[in-house]
Amino acid sequence: MWYTSSLKYKDKFKEENPRHVAIIMDGNGRWANKKGKMRILGHKEGFKAVKKAVKFSIMNNLKILTLYAFSSENWNRPVFEIKSLMELFFFALDSEINNFKKFNIRLKVIGDITHFNKKLQKRIHQVEKITLNNNGLILNIAANYGGRWDIIQSVKKIVKKVQNGVLQTEKIEEKTITQYLSTSELLPVDLVIRTGGEKRISNFLLWQIAYSELYFTDVLWPDFNDCSFQNAIDSFISRERRFGGFKKI
């Protein structure tokens, strides 16, 4: 199995490690272009990097790993690339289900998956149901996800509550919005990592990362490995999180 040998290192976990890490996995296409290969081959190598990141997360006892797999803007890509990405997503679900079971991983998918074909939607629901009671790492995949979409969905649910007389307008607070986001049951995001050299958020978890630490690296996603992940963790640990407060002396 692809992470069996690493589980013995779980005692290396430090209390100051982030509990919830979110990653914008950028650079698959550029990785492929640099090597003169088709973009889909970059995505396949990116899938291997996902498995390494999951292994690292288990090894370091992280609680939640959120991966930005497909944004709501990615539909603007060539049809062949989108089709290949959907096929790769289905393959990943099928090929990793036994590992999810064996290593107690719970799969959660956030985003508007109604735009995916029925076969893929069904498989997502099946794997989520199969792993629902697993209490190890939560692998949270953002697919056809956008931060603005997430906030809009939350607002719509709140408006319906107000219209039905269940919620009073003056009672709406920040935690009300949070309660109806797709990540409502998850711990706050501690660290956001973006690979590929770009330094922007790209409509990812806009509400949830208001006070998250951000880490940008030039490493293209297929090349992201344990060392790359550890560098991000070390950067996180070295920072003082004040959440709008003052610096400790």
From TrEMBL:
The residues that hold substrate are: 27-31, 39, 43, 71-73, 75, 77, 194, 200-202
Keywords noted in UniProt: Cell shape, Cell wall biogenesis/degradation, Magnesium, Metal-binding, Peptidoglycan synthesis, Transferase
Extract the PROSITE patterns matched here.
UPP_SYNTHASE (PS01066)
- Specify the protein name: Ditrans,polycis-undecaprenyl-diphosphate synthase ((2E,6E)-farnesyl-diphosphate specific)
Reply yes or no: does the keyword DNA-binding apply: no
Q: What family is this protein classified in?
A: Belongs to the UPP synthase family.
Organism from which the protein derives: Buchnera aphidicola (Hyperomyzus lactucae)
Cofactor(s) required for function per UniProt? Mg(2+)
Q: Where does Mg(2+) bind?
A: D26, E213
Q: Which reaction does it catalyse?
A: 8 isopentenyl diphosphate + (2E,6E)-farnesyl diphosphate = di-trans,octa-cis-undecaprenyl diphosphate + 8 diphosphate
